[in-house]
Design goal:
By secondary structure, the chain is of the alpha/beta class. It has 21 helices and 30 strands. The chain starts with 9 loop residues before the first helix and ends in a 6-residue tail after the last helix. Bound molecules: 5'-O-[(S)-butoxy(hydroxy)phosphoryl]adenosine.
Length: 647
């Protein structure tokens, strides 16, 4: 079975910023002389005090540390806003399309955005926010989310955005972990015509997180949410009362910029920490080269600000590059499955960056929804968050892009800050389903289970050999966990947690997580996190969660649950547990399947054999492998005999 290859179209090779020869030359320099390469790329940022040292990194115990541009100073907000004012002050910075097509859009120029950010920075300062303080942002997809981020960066505060789909419990845990005194939220969010009670969730979180002293509330729907005197502050009133001028703080390149919580293979989500200088250079460079971006082009990244894609490629990358970034509040299928492409036509979007899960859902609705729109403005299509299956890739290419637009399938992680493996539209022949080749400065390696480097084609664990500027710098509040999690599985390498195949052409094909992390609709979930939510229920004795194949979501959540001896599990309890997990974590953690099991397959030493649970969830029961080391092999027969009927 030959795999399809799409060569670089001639006009792309001619006109793109990077063609294949240039990619090869630049990549070569980026890995042989990273100091020279990144010193040059750092010229895209206005430094207050120029750096004298580019790279100072080690992955080894003893002298472990990751520092880029370490003696340089800058302010990210000034780079994203102030420096554009003379050249593009009246250009649109943010186009905002509301949830409902009947509501008016907003078009915010760089000058207007600058003033909004300066005012909000002054509001933060009035509330006593200083350099290094943590500020939690729990906002829907409205321009004020960008304003809050940029205002934090301006005053030197560290933002921690919590996705507005997370529960009060999840919010409280993240607020407590980073010790933020302030939460910024809205009265309600709007998605697909439904209201999300954000302020109410913050009130509930505050009952569990006594550290919350102030809540700044943006009126989005105008609902009467009740303001707590002395604690709650109205966004607009506060902004109206302060000066429209604010001078940005001079930050060190290695000063923290943001914390973003993400799931790992162990219980609690970890606060991934990114710093200022390297991150700015990295997101600006990747955004420009990966999308062949020119200032002023209409660019739409459909990710939520609550995820790293929203941080790097909805806000920071495009604004650093003087871009016009489109923010869409809604969902792909509301009011109908044409919505995405109607928005493309409305704003003449040139670059669209979305997730495979949304594409698969839209693909299922039929081509008519796409074909009734023009989409002539589109030039580049992007994919992110999970492997894109070749069928969805071909549909994206043929139906959405009419065969005209290169697809950049970008592999990266919350930890990597920006894109690591990706095609470049003018340089890379495309293979549907492959993230293709490394970005500049990225040295991927495949290791076998013994940690031996594999040469040539093969399948192994994906690690990265050297540091890149946008790499995370730590786990908030737990210095040791950073080193332990990423640099001890294979000493001397950054361990990604992903499995990967490399083909004869040196193209990389990500095969998915090889740790206890699952990817549901492009959202990362720790199985341990869902298990601890389940066992927190009074009727549950034990739980084991694994991923299962899911046509739309990529992976679904399959939970095996053992109830307490005095409980007779039934349909009502199943429903209750599903609702329970949603409440504990949020709707994205909703289990797709709950299988009640009187016992789980364990080794004699008590370790759950997840391999078997995965196979059963995948309906791959012919190859359960060796079950002889199980303490009680009959457990497996019971599991097989009682698999729930899947829809
Ligand atoms: C995990 C990281 C990328 C930012 C948003 C998700 C998977 C991500 C791809 C891709 C195959 C991908 C990996 C990775 N992943 N992009 N293009 N092809 N897999 O960030 O939540 O930190 O998740 O998402 O498994 O490890 P995240």
């Amino acid at each position: 079975m030959g795999e399809a290859i799409y060569p670089v179209p001639a006009e792309w090779a001619e006109n793109a910023l990077i063609d294949d020869a240039r990619y090869t030359a630049m990549y070569q320099q980026s890995v042989s002389d990273p100091d020279a390469f990144w010193a040059q790329e750092a010229g895209r940022i206005d430094w207050i005090k120029p750096f004298t040292k580019v790279k100072n990194t080690s992955y080894h115990a003893g002298d472990f540390g990751i520092r880029w541009f370490e003696d340089g100073t800058l302010n990210l907000s000034a780079n994203a806003l102030d420096r554009h004012l003379t050249t593009r002050g009246d250009q649109i910075a943010i186009l905002w399309e509301p949830d409902s097509p009947d509501e008016a859009e907003r078009r915010i120029t760089y000058r207007e955005l600058h003033e909004m950010v300066c005012r909000f920075a002054n509001v933060l300062k009035d509330q006593g926010v200083n350099r290094g303080d943590r500020v939690t942002i729990y906002l829907p997809m409205v321009p004020e989310a960008a304003v809050a981020m940029l205002a934090c960066a301006r005053v030197g505060a560290i933002h921690s955005i919590v996705f507005a789909g997370f529960s009060p419990e999840a919010l409280a845990g993240r607020v407590e972990d980073c010790g933020s005194r302030i939460v910024i939220t809205a009265d309600e969010g709007l998605r697909g015509g439904k209201k999300v009670p954000l302020k109410k969730n913050v009130d509930a979180a505050a009952a569990q997180a006594p550290g919350i002293e102030k809540v700044i509330v943006l009126a989005r729907t105008g609902a009467d949410v009740g303001m707590v005197p002395g604690r709650d502050i109205d966004w607009h009133a506060a902004c109206a009362a302060v000066s429209p001028e604010n001078s940005p703080e001079e930050m060190n390149a290695e000063d923290p910029l943001f914390i973003l919580y993400t799931s790992g293979s162990t219980g609690k989500p970890k606060g991934v920490l990114h710093t200022t200088g390297g991150y700015s250079v990295w997101v600006s460079a990747t955004h420009q080269y990966v999308f062949d971006y020119r200032p002023g082009q209409i660019y739409w990244c459909a990710a939520d600000v609550g995820w790293v894609t929203g941080h790097s490629y909805l806000i920071y990358g495009p604004l650093l590059n003087g871009g016009t970034t489109l923010m869409f509040e809604g969902v792909p299928n509301y009011p109908d499955p044409s919505r995405f492409w109607q928005v493309v036509d409305k704003y003449q979007v040139e670059i669209f960056y979305g997730a495979p899960t949304a594409l698969r859902a839209l693909m299922r609705e039929g081509d008519e929804w796409v074909k009734k729109t023009s989409r002539q403005s589109l030039r580049v299509l992007g994919s992110v968050g999970e492997p894109i299956n070749p069928e969805a890739w071909e549909w994206y290419h043929k139906v959405v892009g009419e065969g005209r637009c290169p697809i950049v399938d970008t592999w990266w992680q919350t930890e990597t800050g920006g894109t690591m493996i990706t095609p470049l539209p003018g340089a890379t022949a495309l293979k549907p389903g492959s993230a293709s080749r490394p970005f500049f400065g990225v040295q991927p390696l495949l290791l076998d289970n013994d940690g031996t480097i594999m040469e040539g084609p093969g399948d192994g664990c994906l690690v990265i050999a050297d540091s890149w500027p946008g790499q995370m710098r730590g786990v908030w509040g737990d210095a040791d966990r950073f080193f332990q999690t990423y640099f001890t599985t294979f000493a001397g390498y950054y361990f990604t947690g992903d499995g990967c195949r490399r083909d004869e052409d040196g193209y990389y094909w990500i095969t998915g997580r090889i740790d206890d992390v699952i990817n549901v609709s492009g959202h990362r979930m720790g199985t341990a996190e869902i298990e601890s939510a389940l066992v927190a229920h009074e009727h549950v004795a034990e739980a084991a969660v694994v991923g299962m194949p899911h046509e739309i979501k990529g992976q679904g959540i399959y939970a095996y649950v053992t109830c307490n001896a005095d409980v007779e599990p039934d349909e009502a309890l199943r429903k209750e547990l599903i609702a329970w997990v949603r409440r504990e974590i949020g709707p994205i953690a909703t289990p797709d399947v709950i299988q009640f099991a009187p016992g789980l397959p364990k080794t004699r030493s008590g370790k759950i054999m997840r391999r078997i649970l995965r196979k059963i969830a995948e309906n791959d029961v012919g190859s359960l492998g060796d079950t002889s080391t199980l303490a009680d092999p009959s457990v497996v027969d019971h599991l097989l005999a009682n698999r729930p009927q899947l829809a």
